[in-house]
Amino acid sequence: MKFFPDLFSIKTAWRDARNQLGTLTLYSTGIIAGVAALVAILSFRSDVFLTVDDQARELLGADLQIAMNEAFPDRVEAFVDSLGGERSNLIEFGSMVVYNDMTQTRLSQIRGIEGGFPFYGTIKTRPESAAFTYQEDGMALIDRPVAVEFKVEPGDSIRIGNRWVEVAGIILEYPGESAAFSLIGPRVVVPQEVVINNNLLDRGSRIRHLSYLKFDDERDTAAIVREARPLRADQSLTFTTVESRKQDFGEIVNNLTRFLGVIGFIALLLGGLGVASAVYVYIKRKSSIVATLRCLGVSSAQTTWIFTLQVVALGLAGALLGAGIGIGIQQYLPKLFETFLPFEIVQQISYTSILTGVLVGIAVSFAFAILPIVSINSIPPLLTLRSVDFSPLSNVSKRVKTASIIGTLLILVIALGVLLDSLLAATIFILGLLISILVLLTISAISVRGVKGLRLQNLSYIWRQGISNLFRPNNQTSVMVTTLGMGMLLIGILILTQDMILDRIEYQVGDEQPDLVFYDVQADQADGIIQIAGELGGNVLYSVPIVTMRLAKIGNQTVGEIRRDTTQTIGRWALTREYRVSYRNSLTDAETILDGEWIGTWDGEGHVPVSMDYRLTDELFLSIGDSLTFDVQGVPIDVYIASIREVDFQRPQPNFFLLFPEGVLEPAPQFFATLINTRDPDITASIQQAVVAAYPNVSAIDVGLVLETVKTFLDKIALAVQFMALFSIITGLIIMASAISISRFQRLKESALLRTIGASKYQIRGIQTVEYIWLGALACIVGLGLALVASWLIAWFYFDLAFVPSFTSLALIALAVISITLFVGFLNMRGVITKKPIDILRAEVG
Amino acid sequence: MQESNVLEIRDLQKTFKSGDSSLTVLKNINFNVEKGISCAIVGPSGSGKTTLLGLCAGLDKPTSGEVVISGSIINDLNEEQLAALRNQRIGFVFQSFQLIPTLTAVENVMVPVELRGMEYKKAYERAKFLLGEVGLSSRINHYPTQLSGGEQQRVAIARAFINDPEILFADEPTGNLDTETGEQIENILFELNKKQGTTLIIVTHDPELAQKCDRIIRLKSGEVESDTYLNKELATAE
Fold first, then answer.
1. Is pLDDT above 80 for A200?
2. Cα–Cα–Cα angle for B63, B66, B67, nearest 5°?
3. What's the CA gap between A140 and A606, in Å, rounded?
């Protein structure tokens, strides 16, 4: 075949197409939804990056952020001082806050700010002036959701620790943070002096200390970070520059949009499959024309070009239509993500995104059309003399078929590679998807064949004829079932997995599980809390002491030495983290000794025998008998590994990587975690209020509230994914509509024939209903059946759960899809019944 | 109407309108067809043969005039009533066979009686018997694409006879077949016509086929040019 079409091919392609443009467009409609999804998501990504570039400094609020999990030691302080510039300090921690009156309490994220943070952007508040005056006035800013929930207005008061603070304003936006931050806990901004000298900072709370710097002299912040490297060796010290924040954020957005883009791409691939099927039907119908052209002396290259040009033009039409719809959807995408975005998106038309979407769309539709186009060459001129039902594909040689399929896959890999920026990832994905589609196609074909065999004699004629209609010549039943099925597979897995996660959490909030957790409980407060809980009807399940410590040495080597030793591969996490350790003389149900011997009490002689979870010993390359030194808040304690345990961290109770025996840590500074079972939200609330009133430093987690938060979070994420998966269903429906339209004449003829021999309208409608119900039902059986299998595998391998699928959700989806299938089917069959039989019987098959 | 007439055509006219212009394809058509005879409608292309057949069979409505089948005027029947009438009293054989491609031979034959609600087993037995009558006992489970043209037409004939129609309309039944196969089909049609007493109305170009009928109605430019009885007995009765 020549590389370019000659004038004859171009002219003939147009002349052949011009009278059937409307019908031809039907063949390309499959890719519309996929291209729309791609253009929308690519444009959305471009919008987000545009906004990030525009507001990069506002994302951080400063030129440089320095953070530590403790107050800056002198040498860090000295380093920060030496940098100059304008500085603002922030202390961040979780604490209970009383909103307005003692019955309204919530674990909140407290930010004590000193100085001018944010230097870039502003905390947007109501009233607007509050963000600029709260520091001077010693007042607080509180998050909008909690203000709405507890009906707190500016002028009301909140209590943090022991102090009541007046609310200056309500936080509407916080620089660099999305609305989703409120889900973790309401944000409360106060002048730093409110939290200092408030008994909050020295009593066990996990506190983050941050310094924000602003430089007026375009300083190279990356150079500062490099310069500070020696300081970071043994510390939890982190530096964040505008550029690194931008990169981190960019990565998240890239991952999210790539993921959603890939789901959109699946819709496009399914569309491509639809196009291939439709193009093949088209070419099969054109067989006699091709044969005539060949008889008249048109070369095989010319006939191939004629139809290639038509197919590419159709792909372009479908892609352009899809791109137009995609631009429309782009306007609404930010709504789906607004909770997770730290700024308002600046929207504009991204020509690169549109071009990418359109080109990928054309490439995919062309890739899938290769095989049908290649089959044109197998149409013999002899067909002009003898009219038979000719199947071009079955006459293509195996070699040509294999080469065409490889060509198709190559184009798909390149197209996806462009979207993912990685040919390897694209190859793996396409192969994986190919396998999924093959599985779906095989199961569809088996199901369709199974249904064919189902034409049971005791079914009524309407049912048997309806089922038979699925197998009319040139039917695209398997492709329709596959595309609809793939959409349902995606949505099915999503819903089942979401249900699974929620079930897992709900299981942990069962009758005998804790529904209220207190932490940061001081040793002298533990008994008081147990008493309050008991008096108000709560059942204390655990009250566990916790001591914080850091690893100082492994054997004789200090952590610093190990980190500098390039031959060591121990992760930084295990070496530098703050260990939260408990002590007791027995093991719990969640712990199993794997190696060594559990020693519950230390006799005061020699190294302390401790027990470690196997994951930590693996990470630190330790085995039974190895010795270590821990720095327990300034006091070195030598220990050795007496036993290695397996801890089931999924149990809803305090679990520890490292466990000490009794007789060592009792005098160390420590706090308690107290877990209470109430079985009643009112009791939970009253215990929480009483404890917060008596011990302001103690933090409480209402497990029911956490569950709600997780649900909200999952719902929001799921909505975005479901939205993209919906495009696959839409593609399935479009392919179905186009397949019905393509076979419309055949359907009209069948229906006319039946009416000629006496079928009533009711019978004709009944036959159609049966056909569409079966089509939808087959897609449900295939898609949801596979979703069940996939979710079961996820439950088995990932969540380690007995899989109890929610059949209600599945039944609802099935019902919805079958109803839509029926609707689309009947929409495309309008006029079939009112058409006069004589007109149809006279007309020739077109 | 005489009791012996199964079909009466009175002052039939059919005009097609397209925008401002109109075209009259049938005018002043009058004839009766006696029960049990075979009647050929012949004429050149465009003479209105197929239009007349469509009107006689209740597939289309005349512009004016009446079609009476077995004593009932069918002009005023609605489409549902016409469908029921066709199902109970009329059989069809088409030039291009018009089988349902998704059904096997036996299933195609069963359709008319199944539409009436006949139970599967009974319908199957009857269809099988008729397929035997047309010489297709060994091919009852084949799909239309697996059958030759002649075999497909034989299936269509079996289908046309399954509801014991009073009239069987055949539109160029041998038009798509070679001479030998065409003759076989003709023989089957006439045999069944005799055996079952069905009135046979055949639209055809084929003078040899027409000569085998009891009567020939010749159309020209939408009018009856001649009406000839080849069967002398019938001619006398007329």
1. no
2. 110
3. 52
List, for residues A552-585, the tens digit of each pLDDT value. Answer: 999 888 888 888 887 877 777 788 888 889 999 9
Domain co-membership, A782 together with A818: yes
pLDDT score recorded for residue B1: 45
What is the average pLDDT across A481-485?
80
Q: Is A571 left (phi over 0), alpha (psi -120 to 50) or beta?
A: beta
8 Å CB contact between B215 and B200: no
Candidate ranges A497-506, A629-638, A698-707; pick with highest mean pLDDT? A629-638
pLDDT digits (tens, 9 = 90+) for B3-28: 578 999 999 999 988 778 888 999 99
**B213-to-B37, B57, B153, B210 alpha-carbon distances in Å:** 8, 19, 19, 5
The phi and psi torsions of A532 (rounded to 5 degrees) equal -60, -45
Residue A184: half-sphere exposure toward Cβ, Cα within 13 Å: 13
Residues A163 and A192 in one domain: yes
- Residue A172: CB atoms within 10 Å: 15
Q: How many domains does chain B have?
A: 1
- Provide the strand spans (E) within A1-82: 64-68
Q: Hey, is the C-beta of B18 within 8 angstroms of any chain A C-beta? A: no
Q: Which residues of A touch B (CB under 8 A)?
A: 389, 457-458, 461, 464-465, 468-469, 471-473, 749-750, 753-761, 763, 836-838, 841-842
Angle (CA) A301 A303 A305, round 5°: 65
Contact A437, A479 (CB under 8 A): no
All residues of chain B having their beta carbon less than 8 Å from the beta carbon of residue A461 are: 110-111, 114-115
> Which of A469, A758, A761 lies at the smallest CB-CB distance from B102?
A469
Count of other CB atoms within 10 angstroms of residue A293: 21
Helices A242-285 and A32-54, axial angle in degrees (round to 10): 170
Domain containing residue B89: CATH number: 3.40.50.300
Angle at CA of residue A224, ends A220 and A228, nearest 5°: 170
Q: Quick check: B102 and A758 CB within 8 A? A: no
* Confidence grade of residue A7 (pLDDT, cut at 50, 70, 90): confident
Amino acid at B41: I
Shortest CB distance from A758 goes to which of B87, B98, B145?
B87
- Which segment of A42-51, A437-446, A531-540 scores lowest on mean pLDDT? A437-446
Cis peptide before A118 (omega within 30 of 0): yes
Cα angle vertex A826, ends A823, A827, to 5°?
80
Provide the ipTM.
0.72
Contacts of A258 (CB under 8 A, 6+ apart): A419, A420
Amino acid (one-letter) located at A524: D
Q: Are residues A212 and A303 in the same domain?
A: no
Q: Which of A134, A133, A167 is nearest to A150 (CA)?
A: A167
Residues A213 and A98 in one domain: yes
Residues A461 and A545 in one domain: no
Q: Which two tokens stand for residue B37?
A: 């005879």
d(CA A362, CA A317): 9
Enclosing domain of residue A616: 539-677
